[in-house]
Amino acid sequence: MSLFGMEMLSQNIDDGYPEAVCRALSKGLLREEQYNSLIACSNLSEFKLILDETDYGKYIIMNDGGPIDVNILKRKLYQKLRDEIEYMMANATAPLSLFLSKMMHSYQIENVVSFISGVKNNQDTAITMASMNPLGEFQGLKSVSTFASEDFVSLF
């Protein structure tokens, strides 16, 4: 066997699966005709109806049957992206997983600042948590919320 062929044995050993996942997820992106249909929507119900037929459908199910809230819809669409990034992070090795983790830091900082601002303005914690970007959710954010109820100065 030549030396040229040996390198092919381990060519994509670390990032082969995340690459395949990324390619599969790209198939779920909105196509041009779907995007054009979304642009032509006159109300939020039509918007939701078009998204129901895409990969976003399972994320935007509204159980109560009431009016659709723009903020809830936006949060659920961000949650889909968050779930996909977390899945890729869980299946990636060092350079890629670190990159994906660092990519989320700006959203995490934004959420912490938003949370501190909500505590400072005596806003209800549940409302503050609901308004945060799902891309910036992290394990430590829940501990910040319990710590914040004790003392705002210590939190800062």
Notes on the structure:
The protein is mainly alpha-helical and 156 residues long. The protein has two domains: 13-103, no CATH class; 105-156, no CATH class. 63% of the residues lie in helices and 0% in strands. The chain contains ten helices and no strands. Helix 5 runs antiparallel to helix 6 (94-103). The chain is flat and about 65 Å long. It starts with a helix and ends with a helix. The model has no long low-confidence stretch (mean pLDDT 84).
What is the topology?
Blueprint (H helix, E strand, L loop, with lengths): L2 H4 L9 H11 L5 H8 L4 H9 L17 H21 L3 H10 L1 H16 L4 H6 L8 H10 L3 H4 L1
Helix pairs in contact: 5-6, 7-9
The coarse overall form would be: flat
**Biggest sheet details:** none
Question: Could you tell me the radius of gyration in angstroms?
Answer: 21 Å
Counted by DSSP, the helix tally is: 10
Structural class, from helix and strand content?
mainly alpha
**Overall number of structural domains:** 2
Strand segment count: 0
Specify the helix fraction band.
55-70%
The H-and-E topology, N to C, reads as HHHHHHHHHH
- What value does the average pLDDT take? 84
> Uncertain spans, ≥5 residues at pLDDT below 50?
none
Through-space gap between termini: 63 Å
Strand content: under 5%
